[in-house]
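Slide 14.
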Amino acid sequence: PVLYEDRQLLAVNKPHGLVAEYEPHLKYSLESLALRYVRSNDKYPHKCFIGLPHRLDRPVSGVVLLAKKKSILKLLVDTFAKREIEKIYLAIVENEPPISETTLVNWLVKDTLQRKAIIHPTEVRDSMRVELKYKLIGSTTQGHLLQIKLITGKFHQIRAQLSHMGCPIVGDAHYGAKRSYKENAICLHAYRLKLQHPGTNEPLQITAPVPTDEIWATFAGLIEDISTLQNG
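Slide 15: predicted structure.
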């Protein structure tokens, strides 16, 4: 689903299970589908361009912002690198966090062989500092809903930091979750991006509705409250 579009940007709600970046051996990716979409709506399809300034893991759903011009892609890559975009996620975790609202600061090492992020409480060799803020929004029989503001944005960061805290994301067996969700899916959703439009410098806010299934549905009222408060 398209969330926002103009002559320079395209924002979509990526479903879980779909790879974001184009890969030659895959029939579909978010990037290739987006390019097909813009070509279908353009008078000069051979001139169309789609660039991906950021990514979501395959099992993660939510808002992804793409550039329709190379110059805009360059600006967006720079904006993400400077952390000038606010990234809000929603996660359903198995266990209630020990503190209802705090900032997590850890050190992350990427294990390329296992394709896994290893979290350390202090700096170690080849580690990267990672930071996020979370807030417990509410709990149901399906789990505990966290709102997360991602500060650094490293490989598997949210998944690894929450697991290290003792709160693995529902469905994320790779990081210790015991509860299943869906194939190639975990209960982590990129909910909202806030930024200045790279072409107009006007404020831009893009929100992606959460997946429609029974687990997320149990938190519908709480998520609606979040949206109302942030829009207000």
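Speaker note: DSSP finds five helices and ten strands in the chain.
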